[in-house]
Amino acid sequence: MTALVYILGDQLTRDLASLRGCAKDDTVVLMTELDEETRYVGHHKQKLVFILSAMRHFAQELSAAGWRVDYVKLDDPNNSGAFTGELARALERHAIDQIRIVKAGEWRVQAMIDEWPDRFDVTVRQFDDDRFICSLDAFDAWAEDRSSLTMEFFYREMRRKTGLLMSDGEPEGGRWNFDKENRKPAKSDLFMPDRLAFEPDEITLAVIHLVEMRFADNVGRLAGFGFAVTRDDAESVLERFLDCALQSFGTYQDAMLTGEAFLYHAVISPYINIGFLDPLAICRRVEAAYRAGRVPLNAAEGFIRQIIGWREFVRGIYWREMPGYVERNFLEADRNLPAFYWSGETDMHCLAEAIGQTLDHAYAHHIQRLMITGNFALLIGADPKQVHEWYLEVYADAYEWVELPNTLGMSQFGDGGLLGTKPYASSGNYIDKMSDYCGSCRYDVKVKAGEGACPFNPLYWHFLDRNRDKLQGSRRLAMPYRTWDGMDAARREEYLESARSFLRGLR
Ligand code: DLZ
């Protein structure tokens, strides 16, 4: 019996469930570069190069291991440009008895796969994506009958289930959470680890050329492309992180510094999400580093929480809430995202930094995404679907299953509090505390309204005031609303007029 194993672009894992148990001499592996996938949003040029080059390298790795790989390139003149079209063509090239595929990460693609049994005269076997630690069924069982879904409780379950950082059934160190220790601003440090960057090889150079030709108008800059495009190189990035950066990762995970795109971050999310690195295995290595005394508990716990807690949690939410989730807009926000999100050209230094490095590296760390670009979009009332599409475009690690809940839910409060208990809105104070950005900004963070004021300051109050009906019931916002109500009317009007005037000038 000959099987066709269709491997999607974010399933680059040798131990994929659909490959397991297949005989190499009786299996065709199909991989396809598609217009459908490369164009459903205007992906950052580096994201395209990363994914296509990683796919080509992975296909080469499978071939070298003895698999028969049928690989369709983007510029193949017969390429239909679609998963279903390419499957139909492959079935004409090969005599196949069974199609095997791991379920897609994105709802959009899974909806196509679900049509295949009716469309093709060949058995279609779909496999759960067991690279995730919590199956979707297990997530649903956990979520069932809960009135609210709280990441913290899910995370504790996952700690118990995996045994990570547990001792005798209790959390290591007697606490589940070390967030308080993990909110320190950073100073420039000569010994900050450099990012491990890789020179493009022949395969990557060919993909760079392809992207330059076909996607010349897409967002982002290709110069300095340095992503790992093989599993081995991704492994080296992980090792560098474990050896040089993890020890300070926790303490400085929320910090932001001008000119420092990576600080102590691992920058391995693109490699986990594409399938090169296994999330649970990474967490076990982080735990081992802690148990060997090489890194402090707050660093190990902060890292593990992101992977077995947040990452698994948002995936569960995504699959429970789709397809309607993408349309949610609790705050009825409808402003267009300003043009500078695609150019970085703004005199707000924090935004110029976060967006500038995004254009350079298809990367920004989570606090830059949440508290700079996300916070600003929230405060100005940007349409959450547009914000979602921007994040999906610009970040190399962005697939809808992980990006949508983080953006539309957590950052833009589009789901009305399903994912987070309050909107992540802040004035300039937070940015000033956690970064050195404000020191070199043309606006003054200490000026609260009017000429020269940091726009985040009046926008914050404008946001709270205009969304009062929807937000004032939140216990976590009681304090700011009390402060607002305690101001005299003239002061409040000064804030509101300052925000209105700024919003009128936004393009
Ligand atoms: C993101 C992406 C891109 C840009 N290109 C391709 C492609 O050409 N072929 C492919 O198989 N996958 C690609 N991907 C990843 C898919 O979008 C991803 O596998 C699906 O969204 C399912 O999660």
TrEMBL record:
The protein in question is named: Cryptochrome/photolyase family protein
Residues forming coiled coils = none
For this protein's source organism, the top of the classification is:
Bacteria, Pseudomonadati, Pseudomonadota, Alphaproteobacteria, Sphingomonadales
A Pfam family this chain is assigned to = DPRP
PANTHER family on file: SLR1343 PROTEIN
